[in-house]
Amino acid sequence: VAEALSRIGGLEVDKVPVTASPHLSRYRNRMTFTLRRLRAGRVVAGLHGLDRPSHVIDVKSECILPEPEITSAWISLRDNWGTGARRLPLGGRLRLTLRNSKSGIDLLIEGGTSAWSPEALMKQVPSVSTVWHEPSDTGAIELVYGKVHEDIWVGEKLLLVGDVFLQVNRAAAQLLQEYVIATSGSPDSAVDAYCGVGYYGRQLANSGAAVVGIDVSGTALTSSCEKRSGNYRTVQGAVEEHLSNFLPVDLLILNPPRSGLESTIPLQILDAPPETIIYVSCDPATLARDLKRLGSAYALIDYEAFDLFPQTAHIETVVVLRRSENQ
Known about the structure:
- By secondary structure, the chain is α/β, with parallel strands linked by helices.
- It folds into 2 domains: 176 residues, Rossmann fold (3-Layer(aba) Sandwich); 131 residues, CATH 2.40.50.1070.
- The protein is built from 9 helices and 17 strands.
- The strands form 3 sheets. It has an 8-stranded mixed beta sheet, with helices on both faces. The chain has a 7-stranded mixed beta sheet with strand order 4-3-2-5-6-7-8, with helices on one face. A two-stranded antiparallel sheet has the order 9-10.
- Helix 8 links the parallel strand 14 and strand 15.
- The two termini are 27 Å apart.
- The model has no long low-confidence stretch (mean pLDDT 94).
């Protein structure tokens, strides 16, 4: 993180503090596996090779990252999908995602044909209670077995519809989210950009701030079961298409995907600069690039890394920026 901020962002930073994950293994509440059907009914299912991303390494119980419930469900799924994975949708390649929640295990199948019934498989795999399917021929995610699961996330009840995004490391994510809220102060107005299920926005709104949450996923925006504060509203769409309508504000929270901010967003920020920006990043390189785009308009006030992905090279970083006095 320090090297990226210095080399790409042109920022001088001291050693970056790191908040460790409470668990170094068995921490992932969600795992995605790739299944390939080969000749003569053979099947390989597991993870992509580090040096050969197109190569699928067969994985049974060897991986130390998933929570035990997911490992158990994966073993049961493998043992019962039948020769050539005949109890799964037809298709040469499938993505199988298992997610663990307080309601149980759900399975999302991406790929294959829509002409598929899950009952034969589910009779053999009772540890999976809900199945979602996104067939290649429709591209739409449908609930095909069971009911929508609920989960408790940092004290809030959420509906886990389809592929709604939540961090994979529940315990470490809570530490990160608590840090962001503690660093936010007491703004009168805020925008939560790339808000997802809206945790930050709802917390700030409950403290009295007028908050707008922006996210492209309508499913994520409607996933919360909590009563919404009158101070909190959401807008569905791309952040770059809506952000300028709500600036300036006291606080702007940015939590973009790995690719970072779309190129016009720093320009929108500079045209109507918020007083404070909290940027949550999962890629130090794109974080540094985006900070450089903001130039001297903002001063780097605080930064901390969070080890959300132990045993991997990935890390989450939070930086706090304050509007420079001469802006």
